[in-house]
Amino acid sequence: MLISSLANVSNGEPSSVLPANLNTFSQLVASLHHLGTISLNFTPLNDSAYDSGTYLSWNTSDIGVSSAYVNFTLRVYGVEEDIDAAFAVNVTTTITISGSYATLLSGEKQVNLTCRVYNEDEPALAKNMTFFYENSGNWTQVDASNNLFITDQGNGTYLVSFTVDIPSGTVPVSVHVYDSRDVFVLANTPVQEPKRKFSSRLNTHPVTSK
Could you list the pLDDT tens digit for every one of the 210 residues in the chain? Predict the structure, then answer.
């Protein structure tokens, strides 16, 4: 229930989808009279981050989060043993991205990224990944013409490379991901070329005179 609701919200549905779905589920649980009297109450988290139980953080550099959090109270009476339990359920998809670029002899920039996907803080697989770069205020999707190459490490880590031909010293990159549960999340990062390191060591070889 939380996963499908989070998938809907992350794909553009309003945050009210989660409480509505939970209300339907709660009514379904209450209808199971053969198990006794059942009451499932829920309270979607509402705070500075979560709205009606969902939280989308896609503006922070290098990390993106799509999350749902709900507190439940389950009461069951009329069976051999009464049940009164309180618990919380959290569903979270996170991606992190980091990288740099190298300037090729052609003048193009080869962007190299490391993307990691997590479900509930555990490595997870991506169902689909799409990459964009910004040039003069316009976002362009990376495709085969950019020599796109993705290596799936099989553990939630993806190594990505592609080339761009833009004049700016920084390459803004956006990574859009659907995880295996169809939850959408994105993250942005400014990719730069590493600064070259120069040796400051002096020549200490002795000078001999003839």
Answer: 899 999 999 999 999 999 999 988 888 877 776 667 888 899 999 999 999 999 999 977 899 999 999 999 988 887 677 888 999 999 999 999 999 999 999 999 999 999 999 999 999 999 999 999 999 999 999 999 999 999 999 999 999 999 999 998 999 999 999 999 999 999 999 999 987 765 555 455 555 544
Cα gap 37→79, rounded to integer Å: 8
Length of the chain measured in residues: 210
Q: What does residue 20 show for φ and ψ, rounded to 5 degrees?
A: -65, -45
The full set of domain ranges for the chain reads: 2-191
